[in-house]
Design brief:
elongated
Length: 169
């Protein structure tokens, strides 16, 4: 379980976070159990950070900058990512286990160029999200709201779209 020091370091930004993470091997050994107290991380800048395997379920990451962040194997179920910048973020798992974004609020999020190969986005709200040039190969988009989402250049090969809401302006 994360302590108050972990949270202070996380809020200091990506450089401090990555350096601290490398120096604290015990905390790194099972980051999925490091449920950083589900605090409000809206507007935080963690661009380029390594948050792989972290449990961010139900976190408020609205308006956060997570561009180029490594979120592979992270649990983002029901996370609030309204207008979050996830451009060029890594959201895949090298072991082919899906990233968990089930029921996440990604309205207006910037996912341009992100890699969401085999991601589980079932039930997520991607209304107005920028998914241009995003790799959604094999992604589970079942019952996902893609209303007014920008899908220009997105790779949807093998994606599951059953029950998805797709409409353009």
């Amino acid at each position: 379980m994360a302590n108050a020091n972990d949270i202070v370091v996380l809020k200091q930004g990506v450089e401090n976070w990555n350096q601290w993470r490398l120096q604290n091997i015990n905390f790194n050994q099972n980051p999925s159990k490091a449920n950083v107290l589900k605090l409000n991380f809206s507007k935080v800048d963690l661009s380029g950070s390594n948050l792989s395997e972290y449990n961010l379920q139900n976190f408020n990451l609205s308006r956060a900058n997570l561009s180029r962040a490594n979120l592979s194997r992270a649990n983002l179920c029901e996370a609030i990512c309204h207008t979050t910048n996830l451009s060029q973020a890594i959201l895949i798992d090298t072991n082919l286990i899906a990233v968990f974004l089930r029921n996440a609020d990604l309205r207006g999020a910037n996912l341009r160029g992100a890699d969401l190969t085999d991601a589980n986005l079932s039930g997520a709200d991607l209304t107005g999200a920028n998914l241009s040039d995003t790799n959604l190969k094999g992604a589970n988009l079942r019952n996902t709201n893609l209303n007014q989402a920008n899908l220009n250049g997105a790779n949807l090969s093998g994606a599951i779209l059953k029950g998805a809401i797709i409409s353009q302006v």
